Amino acid sequence: MDVLDAIQKRRSVTEFQEKKVEMEKVGVLLEAIRWAPSAGNRQPWEVVVIDDRKTIEDLADIAHNQHWLKKAPLVMVVCINHKLAEGTFGVRGKNLYAIQATATAAENAMLTATELGLGTCWIDVYDEEKASRLLACPKHTVPVIALAVGYPLAVPKPPPRYEIASFSYYNGHGKLLEFEWKGIAEHLKEFKERLLKSLEKY
Ligand SMILES: Cc1cc2nc3c(=O)[nH]c(=O)nc-3n(C[C@H](O)[C@H](O)[C@H](O)COP(=O)(O)O)c2cc1C
Questions:
Q1: Whose CA is nearest to atom 29 of ligand 1?
Q2: How far apart are the CA of 39 and the centre of ligand 1, in A?
Q3: Looking at domain 3-150, which CATH architecture does it have?
């Protein structure tokens, strides 16, 4: 599966088979997180892997009573380590870069999970203080994202997305990017033709 394939195939999955997620696969997801980009390479994330049923149930209650989460075989809670986040960048590191880095780390894990045949759903923990107490996090470690992980029972249909033309601009906001999206297959075909043409001279 290539990256764009995984990006398009990833869906927020909320129904899972009872099958356990193998720890080897959890290891691969952690490796994907490990290689996420972060400002100044501060790597301000920590991950709490949970397969204890009671803890998952309590987390579901904290996360706005999302009952479906109680049946997720595994949850990976991505936390911000504020000591690492603030290091070089102070408040900006804490309030912006750390959030961006943990989001990127979570997306890395979700795309890798898709490739491994796993379904995921990103959930806001909603109450960081309660989640922190539940997981016995130290003061400087704040849980921000809960990733439900498991083998999908049902994969939802892709929800609609805005067209590229509605959110992209050229050389400044407001100037339309003149680009007609013809679908991946067509663009790759054109790219291949251009590449072959450029190689003709050799
Ligand atoms: C910051 C963030 C918070 C989210 N919180 C929840 C949540 O609490 N519960 C839930 O079921 N899905 C949650 N989602 C998943 C979105 O609902 C989902 O990504 C969106 O509907 C698009 O569907 P897709 O992921 O299948 O493309 C969240 C996603 C993000 C990025």
A1: 122
A2: 25
A3: 3-Layer(aba) Sandwich (3.40)
Domain ranges of the chain: 3-150, 164-199
Q: Which two tokens stand for residue 109?
A: 């894990």
Q: Cβ(39)–Cβ(97) under 8 Å?
A: yes
87 against 143, higher pLDDT:
143
Task: Give the residue from 133, 128, 123 showing the smallest Cα distance to 143.
Answer: 128
pTM above 0.85, yes or no: yes
In the numeric block, which tokens belong to residue 59?
A: 């987390």
Query: What is the rounded distance in angstroms from the CA atom of residue 150 to the CA atom of residue 113?
Result: 9
Nearest residue CA, atom 17 of ligand 1? 12
Could you tell me the CA-to-CA distances from 111 to 32, 33, 82, 169, 178 in Å, in that order?
9, 10, 26, 27, 30
Q: How far is the CA of 170 from the centre of ligand 1 (A)?
A: 29
CA angle 81, 86, 92 (to 5 degrees): 120
Q: What pLDDT digit, counting tens, does each position of 107-154 carry?
A: 999 999 999 999 999 999 999 999 999 999 999 999 999 999 999 999
